[in-house]
Design brief:
Number of helices: 13
Shape: globular
Strand content: 15-25%
Helix content: 25-40%
Length: 400
C-alpha cells in the first residue's frame, strides 16, 4: 500500500498542479482572435483551450487581453547603469554585477517577456541555468556565451571556436559581420570567415545570428545558411528579397536607438559612443524605419528584438510601439513577430509562442487590447511562465 501511495504521489507531482484561466480576449500568437476562452494548464503546459463558460476558475482575466508570453530575440541582459549612472560595468564588483543582471532579468519578465535571446556574454550561462533550475526568477534565456568577429582567426580557427561554443552549451552563435551603424556598418569579417561561422553552426545544429548593418556582411551570411540578420539598417531591396526567398529572419531594432539618444550622457565616451557616433545614430533612425517598411512589403520574416542594454531593460515593450507607430507594422503582425514567429526563429516553435493545447503555459495579459491601441503593451497585468504566475495585477514589483 505504501508503495502504491508513493507511486501515485510521484505521478501527481510529475504531472503538476492544475490551473484554470478565463480570458475575455485571446490573441493566439498566430494572428487569430478568440473571445471568452477558458484555459486549463497542467504543470507547465496548456492542456485545453475551450469556450469559457461561467464556471469557477483560478484566474479570471475576463477583462484583459491574453497573449502568449512575449519573446525578445536580441537582448544584452548584462547591460545596466552603474552607481554613477554610467553604462560602464568593467570595474563593478562581481556580486553587484550579478545582482544587477538578475534584476534586469526580473524586470524583463515582469514586463511580459517570458523568453529572451541574450547574445554575447559568458555570464548569461550561469543565469540561464539558475533560472532553468528554478533558483532565481527570470525569463527563459538562450545565449551565445560569446561573439565572433574579424579577429577570431582563420576560417578553420573560427570553425573550431564554433565547435567549442557548442560544447560549452551555447544555444546560438553570434557574429559581427559588419561594423556598428555608428561606424557606417561596413563589412569587417571576410566572406570566408562569415561562411565558416554560419556553415559550421548549421552543421552542428546551432543557429547563427549575424550582426550586419549593410548588404556587404549580410549577403555571405544569407548564402551560408545563417538564421537571422540583426539590425540590417542599410539592407538593399535585393538583399531583402534574397532573405525572403531563403527564409532568413530579420531582427531590426528601433527602441535601442531611441534609448541611446535618450541616455546619451550615460554612454558618451564609451568606445565609439562619440558625438559623431550619436549624430550618425540620429541620422540612421529614419533609414531603419524605411528598411522595416521595405522588409514588411517584401514579406521578410521580421521578428521582434530590441538589442536592449542599460536603460531599456524591462522596457522591451517599447519596440512594439515604435514598429507600429513609426515603422508601419500592423499591430497584429507585431504581436505575431514577438510570439509564434519569434519562437520559430529560435527553433522553439513547437514549444512556445502560441496559445494552444500542448504548448508551454507562457502567458501575458494586458489591460486593453494592443490590436486596438498598441500602447496597451505598457499595461501588463498578468505574467505566467511555464505554468507559474509571476505577476498578477499590481502584486509584486511593478514593471518599469
Amino acid at each position: 500500500m505504501r508503495l502504491l501511495f508513493l507511486s501515485l504521489w510521484l505521478v501527481a507531482a510529475a504531472s503538476g498542479q492544475t490551473v484554470t484561466i478565463r480570458a475575455g480576449t485571446v490573441l493566439d500568437g498566430k494572428g487569430a482572435i478568440q473571445r471568452n476562452v477558458r484555459l486549463t494548464i497542467q504543470g507547465s503546459r496548456i492542456t485545453r483551450v475551450e469556450p469559457g463558460g461561467s464556471g469557477a476558475v483560478d484566474y479570471d482575466l475576463s477583462g484583459l487581453t491574453l497573449m502568449p508570453g512575449w519573446i525578445d530575440t536580441h537582448i544584452h541582459l548584462d547591460g545596466h547603469f552603474n552607481r554613477q549612472g554610467r553604462a560602464d560595468t568593467l570595474n563593478e564588483d562581481p556580486a553587484e554585477f550579478s545582482l544587477r543582471t538578475q534584476g534586469a532579468a526580473w524586470d524583463t519578465l515582469q514586463g511580459g517577456f517570458t523568453t529572451v535571446q541574450s547574445v554575447g556574454a559568458e555570464t548569461d550561462k550561469t543565469l540561464r541555468d539558475l533560472i532553468n533550475e528554478g533558483v532565481v526568477p527570470g525569463p527563459r534565456i538562450l545565449t551565445s556565451l560569446a561573439t565572433l568577429n574579424e579577429r577570431s582567426g582563420t576560417p578553420d580557427e573560427i570553425r573550431a571556436k564554433v565547435q567549442a561554443l557548442k560544447s560549452r552549451g551555447a544555444d546560438v552563435v553570434k557574429l559581427f559581420a559588419t561594423a556598428s551603424s555608428r561606424d557606417g556598418g561596413k563589412q569587417t569579417m571576410t566572406d570566408p570567415q562569415i561562411e565558416a561561422a554560419c556553415s559550421e553552426a548549421k552543421a552542428l545544429g546551432l543557429r547563427a545570428a549575424v550582426h550586419a548593418h549593410a548588404a556587404g556582411g549580410a549577403r555571405p551570411a544569407v548564402f551560408s545558411g545563417c538564421t537571422s540578420i540583426e539590425h540590417g539598417t542599410f539592407l538593399t531591396d535585393e538583399l531583402l528579397e534574397l532573405m525572403a526567398q531563403r527564409g532568413v529572419y530579420l531582427d531590426t531594432n528601433l527602441s535601442n536607438v531611441h534609448n541611446y539618444l535618450e541616455h546619451k550622457q550615460a554612454f558618451l565616451g564609451l568606445g565609439n559612443f562619440t558625438e559623431e557616433g550619436f549624430a550618425e545614430m540620429a541620422k540612421d533612425l529614419p533609414i531603419r524605419i524605411d528598411t522595416l517598411h521595405r522588409a514588411l512589403a517584401k514579406k521578410v520574416k521580421v521578428v521582434l528584438g530590441t538589442d536592449a542594454v542599460a536603460g531599456l531593460q524591462g522596457r522591451n515593450r517599447e519596440e512594439f510601439i515604435y514598429r507600429v507607430q513609426d515603422g508601419g507594422q500592423p499591430a497584429m503582425d507585431a504581436i505575431v513577430s514577438a510570439t509564434s514567429r519569434a519562437a520559430e526563429s529560435l527553433g522553439l516553435g513547437d514549444r512556445i509562442g502560441r496559445i494552444a493545447s500542448g504548448m508551454e503555459a507562457d502567458l501575458v495579459a494586458t489591460e486593453g487590447n494592443p490590436i486596438e491601441d498598441i500602447t496597451n503593451v505598457r499595461r501588463v497585468a498578468f505574467v505566467m511562465k511555464g505554468g507559474k504566475v509571476y505577476r498578477n495585477g499590481n502584486s509584486g514589483r511593478p514593471a518599469p
